[in-house]
Amino acid sequence: MSKNSCGVTPASKTSIQISFQYDGVRYREIIPLIPTPKNLEVVQKKRSVILRTIKDGTFEYAAHFPNSPRVKKHITTSGHTEQISYYLTHWLRSQKAVLKASSYEGYRKIVDNLIVPQFGDLLLPQLKRRAIKEWLETMPCGNKRLINIQSVLRKALSDAVDDELLDINCMANYCYQRKARVKEVDDIDPFTLAEQTSILAIADPQLRHQLQFAFWTGVRTSELIALNWTDIDFDRNLINIRRAITQAAKGVAETTKTMAGRRQIKILAPALEALLSQRQYTANQGEAIFINPRTKQRWTGDKPIRDIWAQLLKTACVRYRWPYQTRHTYASMMLSAGENPMWVAKQMGHRDWTMIAKVYGKWMPDANSQAGEKAEATFGTQVVRNRLIALHSTQ
Fold first, then answer.
1. Among 191, 196, 296, 370, fewest CB within 10 Å belongs to which?
2. Which domain holds residue 22?
């Protein structure tokens, strides 16, 4: 059998042409392989597979020639699911039932505003890691944002593999990150005691109670606005953190950000004072502890809080920082006072204290000259102490 009669022939010194008939039309595609006998045999086997799938009706042009300009011409009804914009639109709908409202909204923004505009016209098999990396390199954002974008894309492609729309996930076990740069401004920017005093002094009573509570519990804004009076155990001096309300949830309480977020917080004296003072305003009016003083209803998210917060800091002549810094303020106060990092981690809803050490390490005091003496006094044996005394007396 000649090379021409089998539909596979050398096209140049570095390529092989493959030809086949599909839907009554003769097609020719170029394979970038040196036309050695072995490579010609490989391409011949590929052609055999193509002919077999054409015969049984399962042939997908994009699966064999993803970069061919003829691909779009051959998008069939079943092939529509391979177009990235089409696939991601339907995939996103499926995620709405399993994601929290805030997470879903984050996914939607990444898909609709970033991935689809960039890659939507391609078919799934055409999406390559190199193209994704080159795209990410041009994006003016930090590594955290880049990681979030890739996480959404990786999950979508993984599901496409599970649905047998893709053979492999090009983002599996890969994550592009830029080389970390030294930050000119520290993200952790807590309020000093003087600044806290200035802010609380001019705040309306209910807002003052809310902010004092935030400064002395370290709760996330979403956790604070979801708190009910039934979550406070005054007998045991504990706060039960079980729910959160984000802007995306539109006032509907959801589970906390993480499993570690479901926790009990010890009520410190300033937080207790804030709760007791707030009782007269909301204890008999509904479930919510802290409410929007303008609407007299529970906060529906952090946006209205940010609006009031910005004006409050301006009036108090305090340099602006976003409301989440109340959480950082709590952590820095606890650690600067020498509280156990593990205890602080549990109070804040971290799984372990490694995050505390990484983020707030500079607020943790160095060991002083008395370090170790408590352990020595508790566990040191009398024999060891006597020997040390004897050694000292002989010198």
1. 370
2. 8-59
